[in-house]
Amino acid sequence: MMSDYENCRMHMVDVQIAGRGILDARVLKAMRIVPREYFVREGMEELAYEDAALPIEEQQTISQPYIVAAMIEAAEVAPGDRVLEVGAGSGYAAAVIGQIADRIFAIERHELLAELAQKRMAALHYDNVVITVGDGTLGLPDEAPFDAILVAAAGPDVPPALKEQLAIGGHLVMPVGDPGHQRLHKISRLSEYRYDVQPLGPVMFVPLIGEQGWHEDGLG
């Protein structure tokens, strides 16, 4: 017999995700497995399966479930992949990706969020997800190349470092724009120097702060 949270999770996937056009069976299966209530701020567990972004520590957010699914599907994450996620937040998206891909490296600039996310991975035995603290705009060159890169914050443009760390044939998905006007982009690496850019639609994310993103003391 399923718990209330499990029932909510199945409903979330069927109505909010599959019902809105997400077709990748691996993404749907992964989101049925990962308990989102573990990844929200304490006291907000009852809201875990609402189709909305929720506040977490350090004035950040956990993205709405549909956006998480849409980004993973757009990045074409597949079994055997090595994936980089920038902006780990609570760790939820990395946990979902980890149900599909072989190895996940997630960067978070807030030490507290990274610590909490890593504790959740350990508690759930998600051993293929590694959370690190650092400037996500610079990626992880020592672990590159990556088959897919997902960025959960909006920058003024796609950081060159991340494009360089994308494997040929790989896909990078991130929002681009200022807080008032952001669009999700899919960047596919065709060769060493050629990239295809596909706009996917309007979104709203926190700013991507870092050396190749927005400045810490304000946009611009």
Automatic annotation (TrEMBL):
GO biological process, one term: methylation
Enzyme kind, highest EC tier: transferase
Active-site residues, Swiss-Prot/TrEMBL: S63
Compartments where found: Cytoplasm
Keyword S-adenosyl-L-methionine tagged: yes
Chief location: cytoplasm
E.C. designation(s): 2.1.1.77
Pfam families named in the record: PCMT (PF01135)
GO molecular function, one term: protein-L-isoaspartate (D-aspartate) O-methyltransferase activity
InterPro entries linked: PCMT, SAM-dependent_MTases_sf
Keywords: Cytoplasm, Methyltransferase, S-adenosyl-L-methionine, Transferase
Assigned GO CC terms: cytoplasm
Catalyzed reactions per annotation: [protein]-L-isoaspartate + S-adenosyl-L-methionine = [protein]-L-isoaspartate alpha-methyl ester + S-adenosyl-L-homocysteine
PANTHER family: PROTEIN-L-ISOASPARTATE O-METHYLTRANSFERASE, PROTEIN-L-ISOASPARTATE(D-ASPARTATE) O-METHYLTRANSFERASE
Family the UniProt entry places it in: Belongs to the methyltransferase superfamily. L-isoaspartyl/D-aspartyl protein methyltransferase family.
Protein name: Protein-L-isoaspartate O-methyltransferase
Organism, as annotated: Sphingobium vermicomposti
